[in-house]
Design a protein that fits this description.
- By secondary structure, the chain is an alpha/beta fold.
- The chain folds into two domains: 166 residues, Rossmann fold (3-Layer(aba) Sandwich); 144 residues, 3-Layer(aba) Sandwich (Rossmann fold), CATH 3.40.50.
- The protein contains 13 helices and eleven strands.
- Strands 8-7-9-6-5-10 form a six-stranded mixed β-sheet, with helices on both faces. The chain has a five-stranded parallel β-sheet with strand order 3-2-1-4-11, with helices on both faces.
- Helix 3 links the parallel strand 2 and strand 3.
- The two termini are 27 Å apart.
């Protein structure tokens, strides 16, 4: 059974409710139909009921709950909640009502905050910034988490490295140029995400163009310092670096370049030094190794909200909804 099939199976065993605010997008409605048909999650669609049903013509969304922000008995409680959460920023009831009835992303996130949904998936027609803005304003970061970051789950066919070819690449979609403290936080969050989604022990490599001092540069120093911080913050997690990629995942190279390291040659969680490296890395593996790439998946938000690529397919959305449901199940 492949990675995403396992995720779907786990989601079915502990049904969660995921809100989809982009109901003007046909792919979103197709994904909702598939999720409901497979019994992966409960679905809330945000929008005018008549418009949603017209957009879903030919699809079976009868099991979905359609919530119209302009005609809903919970609107006032959501307005009150948003005002309370944003009062230090001068939020008024009038402004809150306008936001919630015109911006479905905010409405979806406030439903998650209120406990009426367990997670949200969007981004098919919205930018990452627009998806994450209400999430950070309303849900904020998870306890003991310093920043929100993202990752891709990479499933490489016929690969003996990582966890039978499965890796997390982080951050490959969000944090542009993390400093040492941020890199360490990304490492900790990514280890937790690997444990939750893959179900195996995370083995974390802090990547660089240097292995254990083979090169001298400020960029290397950043990763060395990040490794030191990460080891101090997460003593129960297997973390080491700095490693070149081959030293991180190939046992023979790891033994040669980093003798004595219990991580070298065994890593399944790869922490890239910046967004350029992470984004280029995942796309190289996806295209040249024909790997499955699931993401960018966000981590570090108090409750799961995940962003989509605007070039996504309906099947991509199905996968992210299933992952979001599993994240929600693990959310304490």
């Amino acid at each position: 059974m492949g990675f995403i099939d396992q995720i779907k199976q786990r989601a079915k065993q502990n049904m969660k409710t995921i809100v989809l605010p982009e109901t003007s997008d046909r792919r979103t409605l197709e994904a909702a139909s598939k999720i409901l048909a497979e019994g992966i999650a409960n679905i809330i669609l945000v929008g005018n009921k008549e418009a949603v049903e017209k957009g879903a013509e030919g699809l079976d969304i009868s099991k979905a709950k359609i919530v119209d922000p302009n005609n809903n008995d919970k609107l006032q409680s959501y307005i009150d909640l948003l005002v309370d959460l944003r009062k230090s920023k001068g939020m008024t009831p009038e402004e809150a009502k306008k936001i919630l009835t015109t911006d479905y992303l905010y409405y979806g996130v406030i439903m998650v905050k209120a406990g009426d949904a367990d997670g949200m998936v969007a981004g098919a027609i919205n930018s990452t910034a627009n998806v994450l803005r209400p999430s950070l304003q309303i849900l904020k970061t998870a306890p003991n988490t310093k920043l929100v970051s993202s990752f891709f789950v990479m499933v490489v066919p016929n690969c003996e490295f990582g966890a039978n070819g499965t890796f997390i690449f982080s951050d490959s979609g969000l944090v542009q140029n993390p400093n040492s403290e941020e890199l360490a936080a990304i490492a900790g969050s990514s280890a937790k995400s690997f444990d939750v989604l893959v179900g195996e022990e995370p083995i974390v490599a802090m990547l660089s163009h240097s292995t254990k001092g083979s090169a001298a540069h400020a960029d290397v120093d950043k990763v060395v310092e990040a490794t030191k911080i990460a080891k101090e913050l997460y003593p129960d997690v297997k973390i080491d670096g700095e490693f070149q990629l081959d030293a991180a995942i190939v046992p023979s190279v790891g033994a040669s370049k980093a003798p004595g390291s219990e991580i070298a040659g065994k890593a399944n969680v790869l922490i890239f030094p910046d967004l350029d490296a992470g984004n280029i890395g995942y796309k190289l593996v996806q295209r040249l190794a024909k790997a499955e790439a699931y993401g960018p998946i966000t981590q570090g938000i108090a409750k799961p909200v995940n962003d989509l690529s605007r070039g996504c397919t309906a099947e991509d959305i199905v996968g992210v909804i299933a992952i979001t449901a599993v994240q929600a199940s693990a959310n304490k």
